[in-house]
Each structure stands twice: as structure tokens, then as C-alpha cells.
Amino acid sequence: ANKAEKLDNIKNGDKPVVLAKTFINGAAGFSFNYPDDFTVSEFVEEGGKIVLTAQNAKTGQGLQIYITAYDDPNFLVSKESILRDVPDMPVLNSADVVVDGKAKGVAFFSENSAFGGPTAEVWFADKKLFSQATASAKYVKILEEIIKSWKFTND
Hints:
The chain is 14% helix and 43% strand. By secondary structure, it is mainly beta. The strands form two sheets. It has a seven-stranded antiparallel beta sheet with strand order 3-4-5-9-8-7-6, covered by helices on one side. Strands 1-2-10 form a three-stranded antiparallel beta sheet.
């Protein structure tokens, strides 16, 4: 089985993920769909970095997305660039991804104590925004479906 198939084989409690709501950030120029029983919160940190959380408070399911604007036309997200820039971070079972037909990046498994250990991650960049989406590895299916629904709206 290839890496993408391995990701698909991790079931989310065998229930299909239904993304009934849409989050839109018109200023930054993106939107994504998320489950009906999730709440999305948005914070802007110093320097303009956007932090999004999408979670179900009852079940603990959720994910976090850091979004940073950048201005380097040569900036690319790859397994190699992550290993170079964050050498202590495990990058396991990585697969190249393209989000909304234009943002290249990488999906991988890692470790993060803030998420209780194993994580599923999708990092991608679209020439303006660098996005780092992280969820507990057991919620990989929800993360995957949300990222598949991602749209860039400022082109």
C-alpha cells in the first residue's frame, strides 16, 4: 500500500466525516469546511500569524492551524525543508500533497506533547500563506477531509 492508502486506512470511528459548515477568512483569502459539531476559533498573534482551532468540545476531537504570511517566491514546503528547518521534529510516512490545486506541501505523522503524543500534520504554502495544520493522529481522517475542502479565495 502506498502512503496515501495507509492514511486512508486509519478509520475515524468508522463514521464518515460530514463537513456541514464553512469557515471563511476573506482578508487572508481562504475557506474550509468543517463538521457541524465543531466550533472554529480564530486568533491573530503578534506579527499577524493566524491561529485557528476547530474542535468538538464534547469529544475532544480537533485540530489547530497556524497560518503565516510570507514574501519569498522561492519558499517551498517539503519533507527536506521541514527536516532542515525543524531538525528535532520527527517526519514519518510523509507524502507530497497539493491543496486546492495550487498549494504544494507535505502530509506526515509526527509527535507533539501539546496533542498528547502522535500527530497528523499537513503543511502547505500557496505563494502567500504558509499553513501548518496539526491534529492528534487519531483524528487524521477529520484533518484530511478539512484540508481536502480548503479553497484559496484571493486569486
